[in-house]
Amino acid sequence: MPVLKRLAVLAATAALALTGCSLEEAAAGDTVTVVVGYQSKTINTVTAGTLLRAQGYLEQRLQQITENGGPAYKVEWQDYDTGAPITAQMVAEKIDIGSMGDYPLLINGSRTQAGDRSRTEFLSVTGYNPKGALNMVVVPPDSPLTGVGDLAGKKVSASVGSAGHGTLVQALTRAGVDPVGGVEVLNQQPQVGASALESGQVAALSQFVAWPGLLVFQDKAKLLYDGAELNVPTFHGVVAREHYTAEHPEVVDAFLQAQLDATEFLWKQPLEAARIVAQDSGLPQEVVYLYNGPGGTSFDTTLKPSLITAFKDDVRYLKSIGDFADLNIDGFVDDQRLRAAFAARGQDYDKALAETTNHTAGSGTELWLDGQDTTRPAGDPTELLRAVAAARAAGSKVRAAYIVDAELGTRWFADKAVWLRDGNTFLPFTTQAAAQRYQQAHSAAAPVTYDQAVAGVRS
User: Fold this and answer.
1) All domains of the chain, ordered by start, with CATH?
2) What angle do CA 356, 360, 361 make, to 5 degrees?
3) pTM, whole model, 2 decimals?
């Protein structure tokens, strides 16, 4: 027997010993099931959810174990809108592996810790933004509100305990508004909140990706608050039940390897990854690519110290909005299996841990013409405007144009940005508040519409 195959069989034997069955029993028809909870429309979890599922990476990894003498495996995928129901199912021991945002991860660890079979561990990150731009607050297109402080006394839709809710709490606190008594937060699922915003039942919606970008793209909302103003990292990650990991360590290891497969695919082919995710989730590809294209979400599995520090600081905000059982975060976070996954691929985990660059290469400023399978990068916003002007002059339809906010660095839609002209330079901002901050320091800067900017750059 070849050495690699013999080692694989030994590994499978050791794993099966934990479950009390032998390779012979497994071969006789025993099937190991793994239930994965994911959020198909939450773009920065796609490497542990939508993209991972669509590409079949986990099933392929498990099939390798089967072919090397291990048991058969069955993967059950369960799709949810937020992390809360995934946690509820993990408490009930009905989901084995799940992915969710930073606030839901804390709630997951807190609520599962009481049970020996439900207790979870935080094993890997899916995607993060170093400043917090993954969560945003939007208002109706005709809303007169210009800052998050204007929400005082108003109704706001959010999924309580979600990453989007966490951003709202922190933003209101910084603006001097009591996040509990100063606004009325309606606890709603994202799609319900979107309908409430459109019908005028709420003044604003605070949610995680991809909902803010989707609603703005559909002209159903405009951006009021960019989470990057907090300058606090926000992220999503993967948890697994410790009991399941003890019974089937090879499954959890295969999942981490599959997540790395999906991550590397997205780095290399972000536009194709966006197409796959859009097809599987029902989201527009332009919206998916806003987040997983260059300059968007940093897809990186490592458990970076900066993220864990922010994670610990999130606890006080959770306590401010309701009951939260203290959680030993250092005990909850476990990078040992992820380190082993890196080692198995011949990769240096500590080197990856120290890296802070976004591996999806590119400036984040690019033009996507209708009918094109590739995008055109632009060196800066003014160059992008020239490219848009040239495309219009040639009769080409622009499918999407992306820019990077001049202050916060958030990737956004060029035609939805707030634009200023400062001399011959055109500057885009995600929000009116950000543009006003620039104007306060640059008195010559004047507001222009997107179309005015496109026309102006031609002259």
Assistant:
1) 3-130+235-354 (3.40.190.10), 135-230 (3.40.190.10), 366-458 (no CATH)
2) 95
3) 0.91
Q: Which of 236, 247, 324 is nearest to 52 (CA)?
A: 236
Residue type, 209: V
384: Cα within 13 Å, side-chain hemisphere: 31
What does the pLDDT profile of the chain (459 residues) look like in tens digits?
Answer: 443 333 343 344 444 444 444 343 344 358 999 999 999 999 999 999 999 999 999 999 999 999 999 999 999 999 999 999 999 999 999 999 999 999 999 999 999 999 999 999 999 999 999 999 999 999 999 999 999 999 999 999 999 989 999 999 999 999 999 999 999 999 999 999 999 999 999 999 999 999 999 999 999 999 999 999 999 999 999 999 999 999 999 999 999 999 999 999 999 999 999 999 999 999 999 999 999 999 999 999 999 999 999 999 999 888 887 778 889 999 999 999 999 999 999 999 999 999 999 999 778 999 999 999 999 999 999 999 999 999 999 999 999 999 999 999 999 999 999 999 999 999 999 999 999 999 999 999 999 999 999 999 865
Q: Which residues contact 62 (CB under 8 A, 6 or more apart)?
A: 34, 73, 75, 251, 254
Residue 333, strand partner residues: 122
Q: Are 325 and 443 in contact (CB under 8 A)?
A: no
